[in-house]
From TrEMBL, chain A:
Cellular localization per UniProt: Membrane
InterPro entries membership: ROH1-like
Topology versus the membrane: Single-pass membrane protein
Organism: Hibiscus syriacus (Rose of Sharon)
This protein's UniProt keywords: Membrane, Transmembrane, Transmembrane helix
Protein name: Myb-related protein Myb4-like
Record-stated family: Belongs to the ROH1 family.
Main location: membrane
Record GO cellular component, one term: membrane
Domain of life: Eukaryota
Automatic annotation (TrEMBL), chain B:
Protein name from the UniProt record: Exocyst subunit Exo70 family protein
UniProt KW keywords: Exocytosis, Protein transport, Transport
Biased composition (Polar residues): 1-17
Species lineage: Eukaryota, Viridiplantae, Streptophyta, Embryophyta, Tracheophyta
GO molecular function: phosphatidylinositol-4,5-bisphosphate binding
GO BP: exocytosis; protein transport
Keyword ATP-binding assigned: no
A GO cellular-component term linked to this record: exocyst
Species: Hibiscus syriacus
Length: 386, 607
């Protein structure tokens, strides 16, 4: 069914209610809501197909993630405008029930999203580490002809790489190899540390639990509750959860057990619902496949890298120098070139991705401040002064 | 290859015992089987004559054998202390090996060099592996250092490496980089330094706090965390970063750009971790006004961090922008906390009940003390407000408003100074409003004087505030106070003075006794009333109190004295006089001293 039909029925429901309110203002808001939904739908539909410059068979590549985050930022900006403008039409609407509660829940979710941003940024360090090791192997195996020395050098690097990937995959690895970068939460620390040092802050941090918590109470607004603005709040919440989920899926971050089964409470009623659900399903499928093999994040580049690494390991394991070149060596050289290509993508894409995540982080912080301000002005302050 | 060409003898001259040769590479060069110098000479020559048609790789093979056995011997040695006295020799050999490889690679593929090249490559990797392992062992401070013949001491201070260790690391690093293994070297270095920094932070009880958790923490817990964080930041900016940089520069002294890159990466990682906490703090909750100072402390710590030289490498920009962003946010938080002060002042109604006795209002006290404390952070606050204005795009206000008079000059006012003026104006308005709650005009003036005086006193105690508000501001205040004083006098005492005025006592040229009696009665009543009431009033400022009393006395006592002196004789007898003239001038003097004491019971002496 074409998207417009969904929107028509959606509008139909809203306009009934709108008739009870000042007609003129209602239309204005209604248009905005319509547009918002439409844009969300369009943007996410676009995401169903990978970006042009990407050649992977899985969705979660670095460029796709960057696009996803851009989509998030666009939607967020529009969302804010809709809510604040809706506020102009009906001042302080957002600080009245049920909207105030919904917005508070949304803001709580956004805080959890911040932690996820941090975790993912941290996880990018792991990916960079893979890149460095892969570069060694790729360049050593790119020589012609390959000698014993190069073979062993590659093998060492490839081995370290595979180990690093499997360590990242295990949940809360307390044992870090020396190449590992920071532990994010106080959880994964030196086993030697005596309990007396640790300050009581909170339970173990887990990406899976965090996202789980974000889906708490995430229900589509029902008829009675649905003042116009409740639905974009819901939409934006879903978007936020989805984006964080996709990031956590792609990039190794702490404790992702059970994440693949995250339940997305959507009704396939709205068009944007479909695109997001479609993406979710696609990614979940990919995940299920990989989960059997055990993988450090679904990032396409990392996936491909892993495959190449295993191939090359086989090659180096059975390598015997004979002074000439043969089919196997040719193949290995090709794989090495592909590996080098992936490293190049990472080199070019990881930093921009990291900056994008940071941008998202700061945007969430800023928007949160603006919403709290608006809520406060509505007469209900969020909390008594600390 | 200077050594061998000069024929310098690097090894010891003594012939080693055959059985030892496998375990003691230091003396390898003197082993009869390997004529080290000769081999090197041959190799050099070989390299130079490499392009001629036929190549005899024998000397290379010999060289490779020698290197191979040296490596084997080193590998057998226990941890650390691997490279002893003759390590330089070994490093040179390794470098030479790499040079050979590069030269051999240049040969066309049919020159028969292939198998030799392969063997060389193999040896090379083995040597690199050895070096890398040794590098890691040296870098990993947790390794037990007591094995091995030479004990490399560790030192007590971060990063805990002895100069000998650093020197060996330096040699290893250079060699690895020279010989094409820069990547492995840097990976090892970064990884182990991160681990060491992690351990160091743990030692300082540094913990990561999630944004989610921070959001839910009580202020008491947060305050503890802030204190800890500030302590750690100080340690980092004062010690950690510079020590780390020194280490990078020492280990990679021959490769400054690599040193810089590695340092950049490490410090960026370290900083990102440090910034997590203040990032969590800037999520707006309503911080009450006294939290300002903690935030200013954080701001200053971040500013110090930002001022550190990290270098120009790519990740440095990231570092700068991160720190800067957080610093800004903290600054914004500080601004909003400070603005709360304005809100508090404006909304302070105190239930419309005036302060008893016209005393200094708690709000006045709070505000002035707050401002005084705040001005200890004056420079930081100036920065913070300057930045805030820039970000808000606030344009400079009209000229007159933006200038403050100081010593009869007009100086441009900083954003913070303007804020200060705003706060003071609000306070004034509030005091003004509160003064109107008093029904008695006199009490009203006392109240205004008390608060005004308190403000001026506080200003005197803090030259910073005084300077920022400017000279004329204080002058205006002072003259206002004088005004209130006059008004008070008039309101309270003019009626009393009228009762002891010489005029109107006489009727038809004669002193009228009834009028006199009336006068004294009125005087007594009025005076006692004033005493009763105004003794309960409070003037806490000693100087103001005495000023008031003195000015009252200086008017009242002479007037009373002269009145009494003039008219007391008109009473029939002293008994009658005593009935009406309750007070002697000295009594009045004493009783005036009771004014403004804040007494709950009046103590009027009756004569």
């Amino acid at each position: 069914m074409p998207a417009t039909d969904y929107q028509a029925s959606f509008l139909g429901r809203i306009s009934l209610r709108r008739n009870q309110v000042i007609a003129m203002d209602g239309n204005h808001e209604q248009e905005d809501l319509e547009l918002f939904s439409k844009h969300v739908s369009e943007r996410f539909t676009e995401l169903l197909s990978p970006p042009d410059d990407v050649v992977f068979d899985t969705l979660l590549s670095i460029s796709w993630l960057r696009k996803l985050l851009d989509v998030f930022l666009c939607c967020e900006a529009e969302f804010k405008a809709v809510l604040m403008m809706g506020d102009d039409d009906h001042p302080f609407q957002i600080s009245k029930p049920p909207l105030d509660r919904l917005i508070h829940e949304f803001l709580d979710r956004s805080i959890k999203a911040l932690d996820l941003c941090n975790a993912v940024t941290n996880g990018l360090d792991s990916v960079r580490h893979y890149q460095k090791l892969a570069e060694i192997a790729a360049s050593a195996l790119g020589q012609k002809p390959i000698g014993d020395g190069q073979a062993r050098r590659s093998r060492k690097a490839l081995n370290s790489l595979l180990m690093a990937m499997s360590v990242d995959d295990k949940e809360c690895s307390a044992v870090k190899t020396t190449e590992r970068s920071w532990s994010f939460s106080r959880l994964a620390v030196n086993k030697d540390r005596s309990p007396g040092h640790l300050r009581q802050v909170a339970k173990k941090w887990s990406a899976a639990k965090q996202i789980q918590a974000m889906t708490w109470n995430l229900v589509p607004p029902r008829g009675a509750e649905g003042s116009g603005l409740a639905s974009p709040v819901y939409t934006m919440s879903v978007i936020m959860v989805f984006v964080m989920w996709a990031l956590a899926a792609a990039i190794p971050c702490q404790e992702r057990n059970g994440l693949s089964a995250t339940y997305f409470p959507v009704r396939k009623q709205w068009s944007w619902d479909q695109s997001i659900t479609g993406l979710h399903e696609k990614i979940a499928e990919e995940w299920k496949e990989k989960e059997k093999k055990g993988a450090a994040g679904l990032l396409s580049e990392v996936q491909k890298m892993e495959k190449l690494v295993r191939n090359l390991m086989e090659f180096t394991d059975s390598f015997q120098f004979h002074g000439g070149t043969d089919e196997k060596a040719e193949e290995a050289a090709d794989h090495a070139a592909e590996l080098a290509e992936i490293c190049k993508r990472m080199e070019e894409g990881l930093l921009p991705l990291q900056m994008k995540i940071k941008e998202v982080f700061h945007r969430i912080v800023r928007s949160r401040a603006e919403f709290l301000q608006a809520l406060k002005q509505g007469g209900k302050s969020s909390a008594p002064p600390v | 290859m200077g050594k061998s060409q000069n024929g310098e003898n690097l090894g010891t001259e003594t012939v080693s015992d055959g059985g030892d040769e496998q375990n003691n590479p230091d003396e390898l060069s003197s082993e009869p089987g390997f004529k080290f110098d000769q081999i090197l000479k041959d190799v050099d020559q070989f390299i130079e004559t490499l392009d001629s048609g036929e190549n005899n790789f024998t000397c290379i093979d010999q060289f490779l054998e020698m290197v191979d056995s040296e490596i084997a011997a080193y590998e057998l040695r226990k941890a650390s202390a691997k490279f002893g006295l003759n390590m330089e020799e070994f490093f040179e050999a390794v470098k030479l090996l790499w040079t050979i490889i590069r030269r051999l690679e240049e040969l066309p593929s049919d020159s028969g060099a292939t198998s030799c090249l392969n063997r060389a490559g193999s040896e090379h990797h083995r040597a690199m592996l050895l070096l890398e392992n040794e590098f890691r062992t040296l870098l990993d401070i947790n390794t037990d250092r007591n094995e091995g013949e030479t004990k490399l001491k560790t030192v007590e201070e971060f990063p805990y490496f002895s100069p000998e260790s650093v020197s060996i690391m330096n040699r290893i690093g250079s060699t690895m980089i020279f010989a094409g293994y820069e990547a492995e070297c840097c990976i090892a270095y970064s990884g182990l330094r991160l681990k060491a920094l992690d351990a160091e932070l743990s030692k300082l009880s540094f913990e990561n706090i999630n944004v989610d958790d921070a959001e839910r923490m009580s202020w008491e817990s947060l305050e503890v965390e802030i204190g800890n964080w500030l302590h750690i930041m100080k340690h980092c900016t004062n010690n950690l970063f510079s020590e780390e940089r020194t280490l990078c520069n020492s280990v990679f002294s021959e490769h400054p750009s690599i040193a810089q890159r590695l340092f950049c990466e490490l410090s960026t990682s370290l900083t990102m971790r440090l910034l997590n906490f203040p990032n969590a703090l800037v999520l707006p909750r309503q911080y009450s006004t006294e939290k300002l100072f903690k935030f200013l402390d954080i701001y200053e710590a971040l500013r110090d961090l930002n001022n550190m030289e990290i270098g120009n490498y790519l990740s440095a920009k990231e570092f700068m922008s991160d720190t800067f962003t957080v610093q800004c946010r903290i600054g914004e938080t500080a601004v909003s906390i400070f603005s709360q002060l304005e809100n508090s002042i404006e909304s302070d109604n105190a239930g419309r009940i005036p302060v008893a006795g016209g005393a200094v209002h708690p709000l006045t006290r709070y505000t002035m003390n707050y401002l005084k404390y705040a001005c200890e952070y004056k420079d930081t606050l100036e920065q913070v407000f300057q930045k805030h204005n820039e970000m808000e795009g606030l344009t400079v206000q009209k000229v007159q408003e933006n200038y403050i008079e100081k010593d009869d000059r007009f100086l441009p006012a900083s954003p913070f100074a303007l804020k200060l003026v705003e706060v003071m104006d609000l306070l004034d308005a509030n005091i003004e409003m509160k003064s109107k709650l008093y029904r008695s005009p006199s009490l009203r003036y006392i109240f205004l004087m008390n608060n005004g005086r308190y403000i001026l006193q506080k200003l005197k105690e803090s030259t910073d505030i005084y300077d920022m508000l400017g000279h004329s501001w204080s002058r205006k205040r002072t003259s206002e106070l004088r005004q209130y004083h006059k008004l008070y006098q008039r309101d309270t005492w003019s009626n009393v003075l009228q009762t002891i005025s010489h005029e109107g006592v006489q009727v038809n040229g004669k002193v009228s006794k009834p009028i006199l009696k009336e006068r004294f009665k009125n005087f007594n009543a009025l005076f006692e009333e004033i005493l009763k009431t105004q003794s309960t009033w409070v003037v806490s400022d000693g100087q103001l109190k005495s000023e008031l009393r003195v000015s009252i006395s200086s008017v009242m006592i002479p007037a009373y004295r002269s009145f009494v002196g003039r008219f007391q004789s008109y009473f029939d007898n002293s008994k009658q006089a005593g009935k009406y003239i309750k007070y002697q001038p000295e009594d009045i003097e004493e009783l005036i001293e009771q004014l403004f004491e804040g007494n709950t019971t009046s103590m009027i002496r009756r004569s």
